[in-house]
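User: hey, got a sec? need Thioesterase domain-containing protein folded
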Amino acid sequence: MEIDDTARYRSIPWVSKLLQDESFITIPSTNREKKSSTEDNLFASTLKSDDTLSGCLTQYRYSPSSSAVPENIEEVRMFFTLGDGMNGYPGILHGGIVATLLDEGMGLLLTLRSNYKASNDRTTSSKTVTAYLNTNFLRPVQTPGVIVLYARLDESKENRKWKIKGRICDLENQILATAECLYVKSQSKI
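Assistant: Yep! Here you go:
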């Protein structure tokens, strides 16, 4: 776990090819950093081990027709290195973890977009929460291994509701799982 995640993923041929796509910008996966607020503890602590999620790398892309500011981020791509400590069956990732990864990746897209507004609007006190997560399991997610998760903004309403679609693919670009998620702005402080 001490190897830099960027170097680790560049050493994997199929991932390295995707990382060369200059339309995506690579950033640290901040959900893997322990925070005093306990935010992100699931990914920064519980699921951060050699036999669970030993690595994660995040990329994002702006809408081709927009300016390059965070509120115009349209797509996120995350690479995960999966261990066998989250299996439901031998060699197969538990379905609940598949859904968790999809929720995390799709939520990160919204987080990256909203960071721009939050940093410029000190009155922002609400967070977004998952209203629903519809998941389709198409093929088993094999472990151990590396997967890629794609999340893309599908619809935005009244700056209060966001529909995001996601998918998890393997090294052969086979779609293993898909999801549609609705996030809503919480009316209470979280």
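Quick note: The first helix runs from residue 5 to 10. Let me know if you need anything else on Thioesterase domain-containing protein.
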